[in-house]
Design goal:
The protein has 510 residues and is mainly β. It folds into two domains: 47-251; 274-464, no CATH class. Helix content is 9%, strand content 40%. A hairpin with a 5-residue loop joins β41 (433-440) and β42 (446-449). The chain is elongated, with a radius of gyration of 27 Å. The N and C termini lie far apart (105 Å).
């Protein structure tokens, strides 16, 4: 009988292909990461250990995960000198998270014009990076971490972000960037880079009297009507040239809370901002609260704005909250302690329980044309229970508090009361002048108020002129020691103070 060898050969090939394909699927499933792993430079890559961050990144980027992954960098196994990038990791989710515990080890890299960040997250989801020293050793093109390409739920926590050798002063330099800017260009590339990312518990460090232009930068698209907001919480940011937290076109609901921003021990010129929040043609609904901004030193004649909030052309309906912030500044040239402006289509903003103080620096005179404690303009909402204090010498013009609403925009506070302005032993030189307040009224006419009584009479009552001091400003104990300010405020929705203590239910402290 004639055998059909062609048919048998075809069946054999089919079985072989099926078996080989099944083997590939099985191997692929096995290759996916799931469980606990280590990074240890003293042990070759194999089994559950990786000898370098690069080996780990290569594996997880290629194979993805099939369950939660925890990777521990073995204590004292560093330092590691490498450039690391995490991409879109298949299988990652709210359940299948990736947690990299640095255990205090150092990973370093010298940034270049093509690869600036030490660690990059590109389209990465559900990744936690904790307790790692991340050091960019370059003199230019310096970023420690960059989150880009619509990464989601990336958390950078308890890390040290260092730039010990940076000498460059250009706009691409920042300790951490949520943004899509290339390595050799300004951070200000306006497109969606990160959603629901959290930056918390980190510290920054740079060269004496230097550092990057920006501390932490979050740059989003314009116009921006999204509500997939990012959070910057409980970081200590220092050693920067111009801006501590740089926030452009953030999503509705963005959070900037409990950060310490300062330049203690630094001395350099240039415009200074502690927090710079700028939104145009988008939504706000931000929470900027419980931040401490102090010792923003400016040896030149440029402006200093400790907390700057700008929301022009607002399209959102959620109220922004600026509350419980402490701003303590030495003598400087010109600017504002707290600046809140909206303009066209005014944003709804409550400015509550903030403290702004200017303290005399021996041998220093404020020389700028104008310096304001609190400056608000064209926002709706409440301006209540705030404190302004100053004891500086000025050869320019000082205003304790100002409400400069342009009536063509239709803005202006709903309630502007229960604030305290106390100017203690302020002195002038040359043509310097001191005013308790400045208001723009009917017909956009601006009136200056030379005495506290003049200012108070505009509002009829509920304004205060009470002495004020901190427990120990030099050692950053910013608790207030003025009993006269206790329980004279009015109730607001901010029921706790900056230290988490519950305010009086009916007569809150300012």
């Amino acid at each position: 009988m004639k055998k059909n060898y062609k048919q048998r050969n075809w069946l054999f090939k089919l079985k072989t292909a099926f078996t080989f394909g099944f083997a590939l699927l099985t191997c692929s499933a096995i290759a996916q990461l799931n469980g606990t792993y280590t990074i240890n430079s003293a042990t070759a890559t194999g089994g559950t250990n990786y000898q370098s961050f690069t080996d780990f990144a290569t594996d997880i980027n290629a194979n993805g995960v099939s369950g939660p992954v925890v990777i521990d960098v073995v204590a004292n196994s560093g330092p590691y000198n490498e450039w690391v990038q995490f991409n879109d990791i298949s299988g990652s989710s709210s359940t299948n998270t990736i947690t990299l515990n640095g255990n205090g080890n150092t990973v370093s890299y010298s940034g270049s014009s093509t690869r600036s960040p030490v660690i990059t997250f590109s389209s990465t989801d559900h990744f936690i990076l904790d307790n790692l020293v991340i050091e960019n050793t370059g003199s230019e093109y310096s970023r420690c971490v960059q989150i880009r390409s619509v990464s989601t739920y990336v958390t950078i926590s308890n890390c040290q972000l260092n730039m010990p050798n940076l000498t460059g002063t250009t706009a691409e330099n920042t300790y951490l960037l949520i943004g899509n800017a290339s390595s050799n260009s300004s951070v200000s590339s306006f497109s969606n880079a990160g959603e629901y990312c959290t930056i918390t518990g980190n510290t920054t460090s740079g060269p004496s009297n230097g550092g990057p232009k920006y501390g932490i930068s979050i740059i989003d698209k314009r116009p921006n009507t999204d509500n997939k907001y990012n959070t910057v919480h409980n970081n200590e940011i220092t050693n920067f040239l111009n801006i501590g937290i740089y926030f452009r076109h953030g999503d509705e609901g963005s959070v900037i809370t409990n950060n310490k921003i300062h330049q203690t021990g630094q001395s350099n010129s240039g415009t200074k901002y502690g927090i710079y929040s700028y939104q145009r043609d988008g939504k706000t609904g931000y929470n900027i609260s419980n931040n401490i901004i102090f010792n923003l030193l400016n040896e030149g004649n440029d402006q200093t704005r400790a907390l700057y909030f700008y929301a022009y052309g607002n399209s959102g309906s959620i109220k922004s909250i600026i509350s419980n912030n402490i701003i303590s500044l030495p003598t400087f040239s010109s600017g504002q302690g707290l600046y809140v402006f909206s303009g066209d289509n005014p944003a709804d903003v409550d400015v509550l329980h903030n403290t702004v103080s200017f303290h005399h620096t021996p041998g220093k005179v404020s020389t700028g044309s104008s310096l304001y404690g609190i400056w608000v303009g064209d926002v709706t909402g409440d301006i209540k229970n705030n404190i302004v204090y100053a004891d500086i010498e000025t050869s320019g013009t000082f205003y304790g508090i100002a409400d400069l609403d342009n009536q063509s925009y239709g803005g202006g506070p709903t309630n502007f009361d229960n604030n305290s302005v106390y100017l203690e032993d302020m002195t002038t030189s040359g043509s310097g002048e001191i005013f308790y307040g400045r208001l723009r009224g009917s017909g956009n006419v601006i009136t200056d108020y030379k005495t506290f009584d003049d200012l108070k009479n505009v509002f009829v009552a509920n304004w205060y002129n009470e002495p004020f001091s901190y427990v120990d400003r030099d050692n950053q104990d910013f608790r207030i020691t003025s009993f006269a300010l206790s329980n004279i405020g009015v109730p607001t929705d901010i029921t706790t103070d900056i230290n988490g203590k519950t305010r009086h239910a009916t007569s809150q402290s300012t």
